[in-house]
Every structure is written in C-alpha cells, then in structure tokens.
Amino acid sequence: MSERDDVPLLDLRAQHESLDGAVEQAVLRVVRSGQYILGEEVAAFEREVAEHLQAEHAIGVSSGTDALLAALMCLEVGPGDEVVTTPFSFFATAGCVARVGARPVFVDIRPDTFNLDVTQLEGALTQRTKAIVPVHLFGQLAEMDPLRAIAAAREVPIVEDAAQALGARCDAHRVGQGTALACFSFFPSKNLGALGDGGLVTTDDAELAERMRIIRAHGSRPKYYHHVVGGNFRLDAIQAAALRAKLPHLEAWSQTRRDNAARYDRWFADAGLAPERLTTPARLCDGHVYNQYVIRTDRRDGLQEHLRARGIASAIYYPLALHRQPCFANLGLAEGTFPEAERAASEVLALPVFAELGEARQRRVADAVIDYLSAE
C-alpha cells in the first residue's frame, strides 16, 4: 500500500472478496429459485438472525427506516401521542414518529457516548407518551437498565433504534432484550450490510411479532384481507440471501472493529492532545460494535479538509441536531434547547474503522489526525 493510496471510510469490495464468492453464490441461488419476495430464503434468515440475537422472533423488513415506522404502527402510535427520543441521530429516528402523526419529544444526550441522557428522561414523559425510542448510536448500547426501569414504572413500551448496533451488548444485556421491539438496519455501511436496503424488527412478544408480520404486508392475512392499514415493508429474498452469507462473519468483523478502535485510542492517548483538541469515543462496555469510530474536536472542519487533502475519507454524523432541522421548526425548539446535541453536531468526525482497514492504513489516518491537531 503506497502512501498515495486513498483510505476509504468503508471498503465493501474488500469485504466481499474476503468471502470468496459466497455472496454472489447466494444471490444466484435466489435468482434460480424464482422466489424473490419473502419465501423460505427470508424465513431462513429470520431464524438464523433470531438465534444470533437470542430473540424469540425476527421479522425481516424493507429498511431500517421501515423497521422503525412499522414498530410504531405496531404499537398504534398516532396523532396526539408523544414519543420520547434523542435529538442526535439519523433523521429516521424522529422522522418516523412524525410520519405516524405523533410528536417527537427530545431528551439531550450524554457528551461521552452521544446516547440519550437517561437522567433527563423522566422530565420528558407525560400522559401522552406512547413510546420511548433510545438510539444505540455508533454501535454502543444506551443505558438500558435505568431506562427500562423508568419505562416499566410508567408502563411505556421501549422501541430500540438499533440500526447501528446489531450484535452489541453490555454486560449481561444484549441489544433487543427486555424491550417491546428492536429495529435494525442492513444498509450497506452497517456492520452487517445488505446489497441495498433491508431491515429487521425483533421481539420476544409473539402477539407483537404476528402483528408486525401482518403490518409488513399491507396489513393483510390471508392475502387481500386487510385487518389493519400496513405497508409494503417486505424484505427481498436476494437481500436475505446476501445477509445469510455474511452473518457467520459478523462477530469477527465486529471484533476487528473493536481492535481497530483500541489502536486508535492508544495512539491518540500517546499523542497527549488536550481534550478540546481531541476526545476519543467512550467505550462503556466491551460489546461496543463500532459501526462508526467518532472523535470530537474543536477543529473538526479544518481536520476533515486536512484528511481529504491526504486521500483519507471521513464523515460527519450528524451536522445538524434533529430539533434544528427545518421540517421540525413547528416544534418551536430554539437553538440552545439541547446544548450537548448541538455541540456534538459541531465537533464530531467519523474516521475509518472497518474490518478490512489494516494497521498500515489506520496508522496513516492516526498520524494525519495527530499532525493536524498538534499544530498551533
């Protein structure tokens, strides 16, 4: 690898090459089967991923966004209801709340984990609260024990936005356990990525699982008999086949991401930069899966340009907190309402951490970051 070679944020070609044609063979199997929507390929993936996640039921859907949307529909969230969540996440977290006619109610984040600050949660709950949607941002679980205790005391269901956290865990708790529903994304950039869009909802509640299966097929069972208004949220068989080929490798890929993150942590700690110049992501539990490795710096925009000039990719997740998005202006949430989310939006930068990165390229990234942030 020469010094002139670019360092991407993600390299799916390298990932697929490491699988020795397994993804292509899986796709060809579906093409030859003639069964492209749901069917046994999807059912087999649902069984395998449910076992992997230790969930009773797994329902494949068309995207992570549709997983969230269908989950809220499953709980009959609608006009007049409120859903409590974080203002620092991908747009779908709050967008799906608005799409079912409910009002997103935000709680500020912890500055170290970027996840919802549970100490502020109770103050956001009202009689209109129909669900709580914590986000396991960048692959680290939110503080689920106190969150579940608060939700249980108020009899409010939890829908986990686990789009970035497939396989994450913290101590004895695994993602998706002990809550009403958990929603996952298989967007290609995720730790387990499809060949396009795909998503999943898990639950241990058989009644919710059955309702979810009905909702994902326009609310019909049997076909053409519609009990509720659902949507076209079905997972394609080709996506399920590709995911089945990749699923056995997920734990190894996530462990390599953790190893890469630990190297960054060590190299950046050795550089001795002041916290305002560089803060590395907190790892509260060993089960962080690092869908992204996100640093904080007061020189974020300049650093990103410095990396770009050296052929190193990076990304800003996310440049504008949800309560400041133009489409949510009607909520009346002025700048400064959620200061930690707003400050994070101005400081965060994701560095390459994917499993195929390799130590040499990773060292290039770290050196470039340290060189820029060390200069006065």
Rounded average pLDDT: 95
Q: State the CATH architecture of the largest domain.
A: 3-Layer(aba) Sandwich
Estimate the global geometry from the Cα principal axes: globular
**End-to-end gap:** 31 Å
Largest sheet features? 4 strands, mixed
Total domain units: 2
Give the strand order, joined by hyphens, for the main sheet. 1-9-8-5
CATH homologous superfamily title of the largest domain: Type I PLP-dependent aspartate aminotransferase-like (Major domain)
Notable traits:
alpha/beta, Aspartate Aminotransferase, domain 2, four-stranded mixed sheet, 376 residues, 2 domains, Aspartate Aminotransferase, domain 1
Polypeptide structure, described:
By secondary structure, the chain is of the alpha/beta class. The chain has helices at residues 12-18, 22-33, 39-53, 64-74, 92-99, 144-154, 206-215, 237-246, 250-271, 300-309, 339-347, 359-374; strands at 57-61, 82-85, 103-106, 129-133, 159-161, 169-170, 173-174, 181-185, 199-203, 293-296, 348-351. Helix content is 38%, strand content 11%. The chain has a four-stranded mixed beta sheet.
TL;DR?
The chain has 376 residues and is α/β, with parallel strands linked by helices. It has helices at 12-18, 22-33, 39-53, 64-74, 92-99, 144-154, 206-215, 237-246, 250-271, 300-309, 339-347, 359-374; strands spanning 57-61, 82-85, 103-106, 129-133, 159-161, 169-170, 173-174, 181-185, 199-203, 293-296, 348-351.
